[in-house]
Amino acid sequence: MQLPAPPAARRLTWLRWSCTTALGLSMWCAGAALAFDLQGHRGARALAPENTLSGFQRALAIGVSTLELDVVLSAEGVPIVSHDTAANPDITRDPSGRWLQSRGQPFHQLTLAQIGELDVGRINPASRYARDFAQQQAVDGERIPTLAAVFEQVKRLRADHVRFNIELKRNPERAHESPEPEAFVRAVLEVVRTEGMASRTSLQSFDWGLLKIAQRLAPELPLAFLSAQRPRFNTLHSGTWSAGLREADFKDAPALLAAAGARLWSPHFNDLNRTLIERAREEGLRVIPWTVNEWPDMERLIDWGVDGLITDHPDRLRAVMEQRGMTLPPPVAPMVARQN
């Protein structure tokens, strides 16, 4: 009797099949894209300020295959890199150096000049956030970058193998905090295309309405359908986040994803089990869960055959992968070492 292939081999076999059958995945199917996808969440959030140029440089120095980042728009309609639709007081100081006391105006109501005055180089030590990420090294004076600046940084570092997984941040339950959906998607696509990064970029969102717009405007770009089924945050329950689709109307979450036109599913890692991953395969879905930070969780999910992991600790995930003999993405030397 022939023994079953190990999880990594099964994953690559399935990917080779999907490259020839699933539409819209050609960018994921060339060369190293077949390998396990090590995604640095907001750069390397556990180690460096999130969604900043220094944070992305830290992730690249560790060695990731994909930079995961979030975008919103400024008042001018320029994509900027922020997880929140308004400044997060846990990580933001005003021009005088004082910690913000509230979220304030949404970014899409602030100019680039106003946004550029905010310091996001360290976590407020009085916050729970600081306890959660006690290892993060501060970089005082770090600013919120534009999406174009991130692309330019990666070009300067000649990190030509690195991909970008860009989350479009919009809360459909607080739509007033975000710009008009189609204008939002168009603004991001314009930067991606102008910077020549379309072949290296995927878009993701919890708001599947934005992904439907992206499917229409940029059918060539891979899309990742984010989901959460947590007690206080369930994006598949009411249809508000999932473009009108509700899990109760389908066999299970993978069936809902397939009905939405998904090819890549990024669920909360605690929402997964081996059976659901097998069901996702039956529905033609790749699976890259978020945000996986602990060694045992990484090992379990790799054993179950996921296609990659999004993590605040790319250093830990690299160690797990190395221990298992998995192919590692190359690290990228810091900019100071490349000036010649």
TrEMBL record:
Domain called GP-PDE: residue spans: 36-321
Taxonomic superkingdom: Bacteria
Gene Ontology process terms (BP): lipid metabolic process
Alphabetical list of InterPro entries matching this protein: GP_PDE_dom (IPR030395), PLC-like_Pdiesterase_TIM-brl (IPR017946)
Family matches, as Pfam families: GDPD
GO molecular function: phosphoric diester hydrolase activity
PANTHER family assigned to the protein according to its UniProt record, in alphabetical order: GLYCEROPHOSPHODIESTER PHOSPHODIESTERASE, GLYCEROPHOSPHORYL DIESTER PHOSPHODIESTERASE
Name under which the protein is recorded: Glycerophosphodiester phosphodiesterase
Species per Swiss-Prot/TrEMBL record: Hydrogenophaga borbori
Phylogenetic placement of the source organism: Bacteria, Pseudomonadati, Pseudomonadota, Betaproteobacteria, Burkholderiales
